[in-house]
Design goal:
This protein is an alpha/beta fold. Helix content is about 40%, strand content about 15%. The relative contact order is 0.15.
Length: about 300
């Protein structure tokens, strides 16, 4: 599977004239299709399976400690991308030693890096966090933010997304949760790399602007396509290119995935949404302008 927005992956092969055939299976956020995709991949027996996102990767590959050959892909080399916390979610045992027929790339920067760069833009003493208790990524990132409080001298203010009668996070509650964070006088909202939140990014970020709250994003769509003020991110194109280089290692150089460490692209991008900066009257200082990419 391959995220359709990631041209970096495709372009890597065409630019290097490496002949590959890429067949895309698009679940379009419908996780109920994933078991059928597993059957389809097993029947087609491709040389490599590429998965996009934590939810898809876990459904297709299982975890290090919980993999079922009847439900997961085990005998086909696999490569994941745009998976937020691969060790925390159990996709691999460690970044240096995946310990299975799977490797991948990182795209979420360390929390410390995000906070250091955020402090270049603006001071903060209270960070708001919308916590989706049903998604592992949200739990892992919250733990990292909890640990960072003393180092960066801030208070983490967390609000839980309530569940609907089906046990799923209730999207209708999101404006109220942003309002609750505003009433608790947070200085900014940290937007976690969470599938549910990403699907509802417009609702969250628009309400944040109404409440005069800046949003710090860790994935580029929240800045480029929604109303986050700024993001400290690895661009999808860059991650795609890095992932494709690992695919070349597996397909051309015949290196087993378990021998390929999970790594992140070098550096990062600081993206500032100038339309939102104008609305919030939070223009980036000169030190940020010198290193930032500005949009809108």
């Amino acid at each position: 599977m391959l995220g359709s927005r990631n041209l970096g992956f495709k372009n890597y092969f065409s630019e290097r004239k490496i002949p590959v055939q890429i067949d895309i299976l698009d679940a379009k956020t419908n996780s109920q299709l994933l078991p059928q995709f597993v059957k389809q991949v097993k029947a087609n027996k491709p040389d490599l399976l590429v998965t996009w996102g934590t939810t898809v990767s876990l459904a297709m590959l299982g975890t290090v400690d919980n993999v079922d050959p009847a439900k997961h892909i085990t005998d086909i080399p696999a490569l994941f991308m745009i998976a937020s916390t691969p060790v925390g979610s159990g996709l691999v045992k460690s970044l240096n030693a995946p310990c299975r027929n799977v490797t991948g790339t990182l795209y979420v920067l360390p929390v410390d890096t995000q906070l250091q760069v955020a402090r270049l833009y603006m001071p903060f003493k209270r960070i708001g966090y919308i916590f989706n208790t049903t998604e592992n990524n949200s739990k892992v990132v919250k733990n990292e933010l909890d640990l960072a409080q003393s180092k960066f001298d801030f208070e983490l203010v967390s609000v839980n997304v309530p569940l609907n009668p089906e046990g799923k996070p209730d999207a209708s509650s999101l404006p109220q949760l942003v309002d609750e964070l505003a009433k608790k006088k947070v200085d900014l909202i940290y937007f976690a790399p969470d599938t549910f939140l990403l699907l509802n990014r417009n609702v969250i970020t628009k309400e944040a602007v109404k409440q005069n709250l800046p949003v710090l994003a860790v994935s580029e769509p929240v800045v480029l396509e929604s109303d986050a003020l700024f993001g400290v991110v690895n661009r999808y194109t860059t991650v795609g290119q890095l992932t494709a280089s690992k695919a070349e290692m597996i397909l051309v150089k015949k290196i087993p995935p378990q021998n390929i460490p999970v790594v992140a692209p070098p550096g990062f991008s600081l993206i500032v949404n100038m339309r939102v900066a104008k609305e919030l009257k939070l223009y980036p200082p000169i030190r940020v302008v010198k290193i930032a990419e500005t949009v809108n």
